[in-house]
Amino acid sequence: MYLATSNKLKRLLHLNYIGRVEPAELKHGLEDLKALLADLSPGFRLLADLSRLETMDLTCAAELGLGMELIDQRGVALVVRVIPDPGKDIGLNILTLFHYARQPRVVTCENIIEAAQVLSL
């Protein structure tokens, strides 16, 4: 499952990857992402939570890249990722090199508490 939410007051986009994530979910979620991004001003922060991710199909890379490009175009300033198990890092660092042209600051955290501290929540 893929769930995208935002908090306009905190200038925060929150992406959750839960259980098994398939390309069709991410492709469908791109429309939600576009709508959420329309409400955020440049300089917003992104929290990508993979703490409940079990598996993600390798073919999700294309949709992940498109999402990153949309986020980059809207002016993300900080990307905070929660990846408690390094074995579940799905190649985000490599995708970042190709899809975040503006090179936002990227921080990877082991848990949501650490991420909240980085985001000053």
Fold and architecture overview:
- The chain is α/β, with parallel strands linked by helices.
- It has a single domain (2-118), classed as STAS domain (Transcription Regulator spoIIAA).
- It is built from four helices and five strands, in the order E-E-H-E-H-E-H-E-H.
- It has a five-stranded mixed β-sheet.
- Helix 1 runs parallel beside helix 2 and helix 2 (61-74) packs across helix 3 (92-99).
- The two termini are 25 Å apart.
List the helices and strands and how they pair.
Layout: E1 2-7, E2 12-21, H1 23-38, E3 45-56, H2 61-74, E4 78-82, H3 92-99, E5 105-109, H4 112-118
Parallel strand pairs: 2-3, 3-4, 4-5
Antiparallel strand pairs: 1-2
Helix pairs in contact: 1-2, 2-3
Give the tags:
121 residues; Transcription Regulator spoIIAA; five-stranded mixed β-sheet; 5 strands
Short description:
With 121 residues, this protein is of the alpha/beta class. It has helices at 23-38, 61-74, 92-99, 112-118; strands spanning 2-7, 12-21, 45-56, 78-82, 105-109. It has one domain: Transcription Regulator spoIIAA (2-Layer Sandwich).
